[in-house]
Specification:
alpha/beta; Ribosomal Protein L4, Chain: A; 2 domains; six-stranded mixed beta sheet; 7 helices; 6 strands; about 15% strand
Length: about 210
């Protein structure tokens, strides 16, 4: 597959052939859905926590006598039937949401999403991406000149670039990620994909060679 290559001024600088083993993989939506759901579950934070009747403060004394009052029997004011009492079957932090997905399936889903981005013209290939200072204005001007026009964009870097990371973090709907950390969930969270040519090599070395070794 051939793709247009842009420079930082937003002008076409030629064409490049994308590796077909990465950008021409047939889509299997069920497999991608399975991987994305598992990754969302693994990132889920266990925040909700209710107290049982054993954990609620107070309620050590029996509210009233067992017999003779004419009222229903009650042993503690912290019963789930009472206001301010414990919660029955409420959310607990002990619940495990994690799902295991084989590594080869995760890699396959990643390549499928990359192929879909390229097929739908949502992938922008750059000669290089560099800025001299960690200024948001610099990266904003570059993005505005490219087809994505600073819309929902994921920037894929071949290596850690402190200037780019600091400059892009203040931009809404723009995120920076290293090529070796790519995954299907992050790709689908953004509409456009911005990849310098150097990142293609890292993707190939990270995900194709590793899968052959497995």
């Amino acid at each position: 597959m051939m793709a247009e290559v842009y420079n930082q001024q937003g002008k076409k600088a030629g064409q490049a052939r994308l590796p077909k083993e990465i950008f021409e993989v047939k889509m299997n939506s069920d497999l991608v859905h399975q991987v994305v759901v598992s990754q969302m579950a693994n990132r889920r934070q266990k925040i909700a926590q209710t107290k049982t009747r054993a954990e609620v403060r107070g309620g050590g004394r029996k509210p009233w006598a067992q017999k003779g009052t004419g009222r229903a029997r009650a042993g503690t004011i912290r019963s789930p039937l009472w206001r301010g009492g414990g919660v029955t079957f409420g959310p607990r932090k002990e619940k495990v949401f994690k799902k295991k997905i084989p590594r080869k399936i995760k890699r396959k889903a990643l390549l499928m999403v990359l192929s879909a981005k390229a097929k739908n013209n949502l992938l922008t290939l750059l000669e290089e991406l560099k800025i001299e200072k960690p200024k948001t204005k610099m990266i904003s001007e570059i993005l505005n000149k490219l087809p994505s026009k600073q819309k929902s964009t994921l920037i894929v870097l071949s290596e850690v670039n402190r200037n780019l990371i600091l400059a892009a973090r203040n931009l809404p709907r723009v995120e920076v990620i290293q090529a070796r950390d790519l995954n299907a969930l992050d790709l689908l969270s953004f509409k456009y994909l911005l990849i310098p040519k150097a990142s293609i090599k890292v993707i190939k070395e990270t995900f194709l060679r590793a899968s052959k070794q497995v």
